[in-house]
């Protein structure tokens, strides 16, 4: 069991650790979704998902080439 300064430091470290895990994940989501469908503006993570999206949502259109 810790006392005094060690206890205060442990509480501060735990508070910092817990604070980082909470909150909005919009920044992480924006970083993960890098490809947008030019037709309907849906955000997709990679080119394979874009090809699948075109196959199901825009079957008459041809998916754009993978430029990355």
Automatic annotation (TrEMBL):
What Pfam families does the database record attribute to this sequence?
zf-met
| Keyword Aminoacyl-tRNA synthetase found | no
The record ties this protein, via InterPro entries, to: MBS1/2-like (IPR045230), ZNF706/At2g23090_sf (IPR026939), Znf_C2H2_type (IPR013087)
Q: Name one GO cellular component term.
A: cytoplasm
Enumerate the spans annotated as C2H2-type domain.
Answer: 35-63
Q: Where is this region: Disordered?
A: 1-26
Tell whether Chaperone is among the UniProt keywords.
Answer: no
Q: Which GO MF terms are attached to this record? A: zinc ion binding
The record's subcellular location field reads: Cytoplasm; Nucleus
- Domain of life the protein comes from: Eukaryota
Q: Where is the composition biased (Basic and acidic residues)?
A: 1-19
**Keywords linked to the UniProt accession:** Cytoplasm, Metal-binding, Nucleus, Zinc, Zinc-finger
Q: Which Gene3D superfamilies match?
A: At2g23090-like
Cited PANTHER family: GEO09665P1-RELATED, ZINC FINGER PROTEIN 706
Q: What is this protein called?
A: C2H2-type domain-containing protein
Q: Origin organism of this chain?
A: Spirodela intermedia
């Amino acid at each position: 069991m810790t006392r005094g300064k060690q206890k205060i430091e442990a509480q501060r470290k735990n508070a910092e650790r817990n604070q980082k895990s909470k909150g909005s994940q919009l920044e992480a989501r924006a970083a993960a979704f890098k490809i947008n469908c030019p037709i309907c503006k849906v955000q997709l993570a990679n080119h394979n998902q874009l090809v699948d999206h075109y196959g199901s949502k825009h079957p008459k259109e041809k998916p754009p080439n993978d430029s990355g």
